Amino acid sequence: MNITLIAGARPNFMKIAPIIHAIKKAQTEGKDIQYRLVHTGQHYDEKMSETFFKQLNIPKPDVNLECGGGSQAQQTAAIMLAFENELLANPTDLVMVVGDVTSTMACSIVAKKLNTKVAHVEAGIRSWDRTMPEEINRMLTDSITDYFFTTSTLAGENLLREGHKQDQIHFVGNVMIDTLRANESRFQQPEVWNELNLKEKEYLVMTMHRPANVDEEAKLKEFISSIDDNTQGMPVVFPIHPRTKSILKKAGIQMKNIHLVEPLGYLEFNYLVKYAKGVLTDSGGITEETTVMNVPCITLRDNTERPETIDIGTNELIGTNPQKIKPALEKLLSGNWKQGQIPEKWDGKAAERIVEVLNNL
Predict the structure, then answer these.
(1) Is 258 helix (H, G, I), strand (E, B) or coil?
(2) Is there a contact between 147 and 354 (Cβ–Cβ < 8 Å)?
(3) Residues with catalytic annotation?
(4) pLDDT tens digits for 113-166?
(5) CATH number for domain 2-173+346-360, candidates 3.40.50.2000, 1.10.10.10, 3.30.360.10, 3.30.390.10
(6) Measured between alpha carbons, how far is 105 from 109 in angstroms, rounded to an integer?
(7) Is the pTM higher than 0.85?
């Protein structure tokens, strides 16, 4: 079997890495499975892609389509045009996409138009919020996918309700956690640890990137001020995207406890998360990692496509009202946060299960 793997944005690399390692393991066992790695270039700079290939031991892509920049529509069109040429020049038995970024949707559409089977890793997760670009990407991709690899039984139930067949759905676990488990012993202390004189469980980590939270200057200012005023003096490390940094600079926000740092590599960022008192985020993937590392997590969103991180894990969804931040931080800092558990099959072996299914197709 020949498989084309698609990676485009930072979260994709974490999901692709264990699949590549599992394929290589299957090859050593004599299995007839080959892959071609296509990087769409959706995110392309040293911190957002090159670093991840090095840190996660992923081989250089066979091709980089160099489709970065532009609006979502422009980027979708660029990826579709470039990937169509790539797939015509290099036919395959199966195109495997991961996650919910623009590349996931665009390459799925191209593959199906060229009568090529599609497999979706992390299929079936839903926020039910169609204002989120990621939700549209998920729904469109799943509507034309042939093989679904899910992180939870709930994701499989979502797919069944949408009319897909049970034999198409494979509950394999979470490849993000495969990467976490494989690299946990390799986490690296970032320079900011000594620069800020950080100590274990005596600081917070923060990420914020969703347009609904960061693009509106007044709302971002209110968020930042509410967090900064309620950490009880505990430092907050905020690896910040350049675009968000420029908005903050324009707003002229003065911060006492929040420390802005450049984006970090995978190993450095997760070192900070592992030893933090807690995390504030609007990301989905980080809520999975905090759940597995048993780190309290406050999510600044009104919905989540990963409800298991709330029902089972350490995550709490507090919404997008800045007034909810103070009581959440008080609860976290007092040590009264809930104890989480690890969801079923989040055991570091999801990629092996995926490759086993592929070998049996």
Answers:
(1) strand
(2) no
(3) 209
(4) 999 999 999 999 999 999 999 999 999 999 999 999 999 999 999 999 999 999
(5) 3.40.50.2000
(6) 6
(7) yes
